[in-house]
## 1
Amino acid sequence: MNDYKKIFEKVEDTLREKSFLSQTEFDNKYGHFKRIENIKRTDEQLFEIVTMTVFYSGFSSAIVDRKKDKILSYFSSYETTSQYTENESVKILTDFDMIKNKKRIDSCIANAKTFKCIVDEHHSFQAYLDSFEANSSFENLLLLKEELEYRFEYLGGTTVYHFLMDLGYKVLKPDRVLIRIFKRLGLIESETQLFKTVIQGRKFAEATGLPIRYIDIIFAK
C-alpha cells in the first residue's frame, strides 16, 4: 500500500530545499494554493477563469501569462462578449499584442453566450455550479465535469480538470508533467490514465489533509 502522506512530504521537502527559500518565503509563495477551496466568486470572476482556461489549454502558460491583461481587455465581461460578432473577432485578431488564434477567440465568444444563458436561467453561474452539489460526492463531481464538457468549448480532456481545479473542486489537472511523475512513482501504469491520475491526486489530498490544488502545484513545480 502506498504511503501517500510520506510520498508527498518528501516531494514537498525536496522542492523547499531546491528552491533555497526559507519556510516563511516558501509559505508566502505557495501558501495561497491552500486557500482556493470553497471560495464563492462573482460571475465576472468565473467568466475570467473560463476565458483564461481556453487560452491555457495546450498553450504555453508563460506566453498566456504575459498576454493575460490584453486577453481580459477583450473578454472581461461575459455580457459584452456575448454580443460580439465576426467583426469583433476579426478586430481582435488584428491587435499586435493579442494571441492570434481565431479558434480560441471564437470559442471565448461562444462560451460567453453559453455563460449568459446559464446566468439568465440560474441567476448566477455560482448557483449553477452549486446545483450539482459536486463536493458532496464524486459522482456529482463527474456529472458537473460532463456537463461543462458538453456545454463549453475547449473544456474537454485535461482542460476541464484544470477548470474544476481552479474553481476549488477536488480534482487536479492530469497534464503531461503530473502524469509522468505519477508513472515514475508507480501510481499509474500508462500516460493515458487521466482519470486514475485524478484519483491518485485525491488520495494525496485525503492522506495529507491538504487541498488538492496545493498537491498539484507542489508536484508540478
## 2
Amino acid sequence: MLDSNRHNSQQFRYYFVFSRVLNVFTWDLFRRLGGVIHSSAPRDVRGLKSPITKLAALLLLCALALVSCQRASRRGDQKLIILGVDGLDPQLLKQYIEQGRMPNFAALARTGSFRELTTSIPPQSPVAWSNLITGMNAGGHGIFDFIHRDPKTLQPYFSTSRVEPPKHTVHLGSWVIPIGSGTAEQLREGKAF
C-alpha cells in the first residue's frame, strides 16, 4: 500500500513538471508571436487555423504520446485483504491498542490500514455483511434479518441461502447416507465485489 502511494506521488511529480515545462514553452511561444492574435473570423471559428492552435494541438498530441508510453500500473497485481470482526467495538479496540494490550492489531494498523465501519439498519450480522459485500443496503440485496419465512407455508429459513438435501439417500439403521450432493441457492441479490 505504501509502495503504491509512493509510485502515485512520483507519477504526479512527473505530470506536474511536464505540465509546467509545457506551460512555460507555450506562453513563451505565444508572447514571441505577438501575444494576441486578432481575427475577423466569427468567434466560434477564430483561432482554429492559427499557428498557435496548430502548435498547441501538436504539443498535446506529443504529450499524449509521451504519457501513453509510460510503464503500466501494477495495481492489478496487488492483493487486498479485508479483516472484519463481527461485533468488535472499534472504540475499545483503539483503547486497547493505545494501552499496548493488542500488539498484533497495532501491527496490522501500522502496516496496513484501520477504518471504522458503521453498522447497518437493521443492525444484524447478515445484513451488515451483505451491505459490505454488495455495497447495497438491505433494500438492494434483500437480506433484512437472520431468517425469512416462506409466505405459502410460513416455514422459516435462513435468509442468505437455501439448502436442499440430496434427492437420493441410503438408510442404514439410524444412519442416512446421501447419494450425490444437495443444492445451495444464494438468496442475496446484488453483485459481490
